[in-house]
Amino acid sequence: MNAANASPTGSHRARKRFGQNFLQDQGIIQDIIAAIAPQANDGMVEIGPGLAALTKPLLDHLDTLHVVEIDRDLIARLKQRFPATRLHIHEGDALAFDFAALAQQIHSPGRLRIVGNLPYNISTPLLFHLARAADQVQDMHFMLQKEVVERMVAAPGTAAYGRLSVMLQYRFYMDLLFIVPPSAFSPAPKVDSAIVRMVPRPPAELGAKDEELFAQLVGAAFSQRRKMLRNTLDAFFSADELVAQGIQATARAEELALADFVHLANRAAAKAQHT
Ligand code: SAM
């Protein structure tokens, strides 16, 4: 290991199963902190603090910071390095962590700020888990694989547009802020990464009367993306019913906009009420 690789991880051996790629590029770290723009009394939680590449500069701005970390060795290091009065460590799996409860506990209802260089191996389930707490959240800033961020912000009719795009665009405004190359990390991942900002949309804008049904319908539509909607949505509508709603029965899921999915889900909800 050369000196450039040795410094960020020190004696810690990066664990692949925890998706550990530690940020080492100080310029990129400063860019991320500038994008987050932490204010002293923010109610903020960082997912996966690791060796504190973001934690330390965040704490330079914040009075206190909450972190959720799964790796006990890293937790031991964090405890040694930062006083418990300023860094509140939650040991465990972010996928099982109750972010909405934390927002209440730290008196930041609706104003929780969530940040992190996320473990890429759990990024999709983690994004869905976080979406369920969206009404407690002010904003979220994450590092993810570039390809995942491109799927999140994709427009209809593009190859990247899918279930992840529709479900997250339903709940959040999202912006890809900038790309981060593999050389910014140790160990270096194989692919580019990107920083995404996610801001929850106001409840009045959401529009799905039954969000469970909306999720089921979007999931069914994209379950086989090459198939026509008259096949993938046959549990919800006949081909004639699709046409009656202005949707071509021969179209594929990737051709529908978010508003089309919301409309279809509301029609399906109304239909279910009348049967
Ligand atoms: N924030 C550090 C940085 O930027 O250098 C580390 C980022 S590393 C990509 C991901 C971090 O998430 C690691 O610290 C890892 O141990 C932690 N992690 C992995 N899976 C986790 C999980 N399910 N819940 C909480 N933390 C997790």
Please specify the SSE layout and strand pairing.
Blueprint: H1 3-9, E1 22-23, H2 26-36, E2 44-47, H3 55-61, E3 65-69, H4 72-81, E4 87-91, H5 99-105, E5 112-117, H6 123-131, E6 137-145, H7 146-152, H8 163-171, E7 172-180, E8 185-186, E9 193-200, H9 211-221, H10 229-232, H11 239-244, H12 258-273
Parallel strand pairs: 2-3, 2-5, 3-4, 5-6
Antiparallel strand pairs: 1-8, 6-9, 7-9
Helix pairs in contact: 6-8, 9-12
The structure holds S-adenosylmethionine.
S-adenosylmethionine binds next to strand 1 and strand 3.
CA-CA gap between termini: 67 Å
Task: Give me the Rg, rounded.
Answer: 21 Å
CATH architecture of the largest domain: 3-Layer(aba) Sandwich
- CA-based shape: elongated
Strands ordered across the widest β-sheet: 4-3-2-5-6-9-7
Using the coordinates shown, work out and report the CATH topology of the largest domain.
Rossmann fold
Describe this structure as you would to a colleague.
The protein is of the alpha/beta class. The chain folds into 2 domains: 16-204, 3-Layer(aba) Sandwich (Rossmann fold), CATH 3.40.50; 211-273, Helicase, Ruva Protein, domain 3. It has 12 helices and 9 strands. The strands form 2 sheets. It has a 7-stranded mixed sheet with strand order 4-3-2-5-6-9-7, sandwiched between helices. The protein has a two-stranded antiparallel sheet with strand order 1-8. Helix 6 runs parallel beside helix 8 (163-171) and helix 9 (211-221) crosses helix 12 (258-273). The longest helix has 16 residues, at 258-273. The radius of gyration is 21 Å and the shape is elongated. The structure holds S-adenosylmethionine. S-adenosylmethionine binds next to strand 1 and strand 3.
